[in-house]
Amino acid sequence: GVVMAPPSGGAGGGGLVALPELDRSASGSWVYPRLREPRAYQVEAVRSCLFRNTIVCLPTGLGKTLVAAVVMQNYRRWFPEGIVLFLAPTKPLVAQQVTACTEALGLPPDEVAEVCGDVPLARRRRLYGSQARLFFATPQTVENDVEGGALRAERVVLLVVDEA
Hints:
Keywords: ATP-binding, Helicase, Hydrolase, Nucleotide-binding
CATH class: Alpha Beta
Protein name: Helicase ATP-binding domain-containing protein
Number of strands: 6
Structural class: alpha/beta
InterPro entries: DEAD/DEAH_box_helicase_dom (IPR011545), Helicase_ATP-bd (IPR014001), P-loop_NTPase (IPR027417)
GO molecular function: 3'-5' DNA helicase activity; ATP binding; four-way junction DNA binding; four-way junction helicase activity; hydrolase activity
């Protein structure tokens, strides 16, 4: 069956909208990349993030970005039509996280998009409707896009917030 929800704010009428559907065959497992030897605390952080709202607080250099990337990759598998958002407070930090996450997991370029305020609204609208599933943005851009109807909040299945 299809899960339905009321529409988010922004442009559009009333009625119910379909939420991204869980891929039941993919959701029976989660993957952790074998790029390097897994650290037990990172695996535990990933496990927590996959199934609960979690704040990961680690010193610089201990793998918060890897944890986020692995969680994002799994949600991408579990919800093939859903959108995963990674928010960072500044455009340079957004760009840094795009590079770090895509390199950490070898993500397909057509599934990753940077949608900061300098990307024209018409292009952001197209990106939200494209094959891209992992979006990196500033909070203000996402807020504007949801309020303006460019991004339907119902499609968001995971929100990662990076605090500077």
